[in-house]
């Protein structure tokens, strides 16, 4: 297992020095900007927030920071989890280290002092940084907690948004949870910074529908791995989550772990890694539909392989087995034993089944949107791919506006959907990898902030125009010049002007 380094002497002082540097850098840049959005209240005097962000993980934090730096200060940030457990890092994420290279700036938003590297070196030094291979997963969560605190981002934990409905020109958000200070709030814009399952849910195949729940779990669930000691375990799939859960079961003392894999061979190449660039990040969203679909469908079809380290973590156990070409035909239980029949005609008996089947994008699963979720425009509503490029998964992605906002399927049916911003994995088909993955998250946050600022400004343009008319603070006070009377040209006569030249 990957262990965290021991805290070096003086680390606290070094972190405080880093925090001072960040505050100084922000001060030099005049950030965060003063609030410029006019205050809104209802006729009854209820306050209206300009933006509410749900999600206090990486996406929500950098999005909120971007909005604040842009002077959008009348904002709330809600997360349904307890403080320190935002995102997947200490819950269902079970990899030892992050896949992303340690050198990526991540949510630093263009500030070197906000990077993981700066935070790491402040505590353990440059030599330790050079020795570090990949970022340990729990350490990444520690960094995000520090990021939140050093930027003073006011995340309100244990608050869940249960419904979103239009109320005049605003959105009414119903709230619940131990941290909720009120039962509902009003907002002009709503940002869903909800991560990997932000517009969907865990992918649960139909074949487990009749299986008693104590015999299986999805990789995103809380699994009691110590209880799998001396048990036979089957893992469906061979992606990152599948191998991470397999490794956890093996390290907990499982008698055997078998991967049943529909594919006939192991995916080995992460195709998206080969095209990552500033050009792709900037240009993908502007491509025609056929090119956006082609890039993303090919990535899905070739599949992102699990990281080498994660795969080796499994295969170093002699009681780990990879079975390719074994899709699932049907599953049933024989008492407390799970029986699996594969598409290749094989029968496997096991004590516990783990679904490493990832997440699916399904806007209809967003219960907080109610019936309006069915009015979200999807890619299948706008684009029919050529033969050989079909993808049911990709077809379910929302077809977004260029500013991350939803579009309505039926014109006039739910125009308020354009006030909801999909800053999560669901945006990737329309806008690229800028709202969930570490490499492009700061670019996406800046893009979101610019877009939201432009929309808010346009909606208040008359107020801003009036403010311009009303502005009366003089820069000149009247004592900076003396008025001179202009002599009448006719009285001066028609004398020729005299020029003096240098000799």
TrEMBL record:
Going by the UniProt record, its keywords in alphabetical order are: Oxidoreductase
Pfam families listed in its UniProt record: Pyr_redox_3
Q: Does the keyword DNA damage apply?
A: no
Which Gene3D superfamilies does its entry note?
Answer: FAD/NAD(P)-binding domain
Q: Which PANTHER family match?
A: FAD-DEPENDENT URATE HYDROXYLASE, FLAVIN-BINDING MONOOXYGENASE-LIKE PROTEIN (AFU_ORTHOLOGUE AFUA_4G09220)
The identity of this protein, by name, is NAD(P)-binding domain-containing protein
């Amino acid at each position: 297992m990957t262990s965290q380094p021991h805290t070096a002497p003086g680390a606290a002082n070094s972190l405080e020095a880093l925090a001072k540097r960040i505050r100084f850098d922000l001060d030099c840049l005049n950030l965060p900007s003063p609030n410029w959005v006019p205050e809104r209240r209802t006729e009854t005097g209820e306050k209206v927030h300009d933006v509410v962000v749900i999600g206090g993980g990486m996406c929500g934090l950098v999005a909120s920071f971007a909005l604040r730096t842009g002077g959008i200060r009348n904002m709330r940030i809600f997360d349904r989890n307890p403080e320190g457990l935002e995102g997947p890092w200490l819950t269902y994420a079970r990899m030892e280290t992050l896949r992303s290279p340690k050198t990526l700036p991540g949510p630093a938003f263009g500030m070197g002092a906000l990077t993981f590297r700066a935070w790491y070196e402040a505590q353990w030094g440059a030599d330790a940084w050079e020795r570090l291979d990949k970022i340990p997963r729990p350490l990444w969560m520690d960094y995000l907690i520090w990021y939140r605190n050093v930027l003073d981002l006011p995340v309100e934990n244990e608050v869940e948004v249960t419904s979103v409905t239009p109320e005049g020109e605003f959105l009414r958000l119903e709230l619940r949870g131990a941290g909720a200070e009120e039962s509902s709030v009003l907002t002009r814009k709503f940002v869903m910074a909800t991560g990997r399952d932000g517009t969907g849910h865990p992918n649960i195949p139909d074949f487990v529908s009749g299986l008693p729940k104590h015999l299986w779990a999805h990789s995103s669930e809380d699994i009691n791995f110590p209880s799998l000691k001396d048990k036979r375990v089957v893992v469906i799939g061979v992606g990152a989550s599948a191998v991470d859960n397999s490794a956890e079961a093996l390290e907990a003392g499982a008698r055997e772990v078998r991967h049943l894999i529909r594919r006939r061979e192991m995916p080995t190449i992460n195709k998206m890694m080969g095209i990552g660039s500033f050009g792709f990040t900037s240009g993908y969203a502007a491509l025609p539909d056929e090119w956006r679909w082609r890039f993303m469908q090919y990535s899905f079809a070739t599949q992102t392989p699990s990281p080498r380290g994660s795969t080796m973590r499994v295969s170093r156990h002699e009681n780990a087995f990879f079975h390719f070409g074994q899709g699932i035909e049907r599953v049933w239980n024989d008492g407390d034993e799970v029986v699996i029949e594969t598409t290749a005609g094989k029968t496997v008996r096991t004590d516990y089944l783990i679904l490493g089947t990832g997440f699916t994008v399904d806007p209809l699963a967003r219960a907080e949107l109610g019936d309006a979720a069915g009015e979200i425009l999807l890619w299948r509503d706008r684009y029919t791919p050529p033969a050989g490029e079909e993808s049911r998964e990709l077809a379910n992605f929302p077809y977004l506006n260029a500013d991350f906002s939803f579009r309505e399927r039926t014109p006039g049916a739910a125009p308020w959907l354009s006030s909801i911003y999909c800053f999560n994995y669901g945006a990737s088909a329309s806008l690229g990898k800028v709202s969930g993955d570490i490499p492009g998250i700061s670019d996406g946050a800046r893009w979101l902030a610019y877009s939201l600022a432009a929309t808010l400004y346009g909606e208040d343009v008359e107020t801003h125009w009036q403010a311009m008319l009303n502005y009366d603070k003089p820069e000149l006070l009247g004592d900076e010049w003396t008025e001179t009377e202009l002599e009448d040209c006719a009285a001066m006569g028609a004398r020729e002007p005299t020029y003096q030249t240098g000799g």
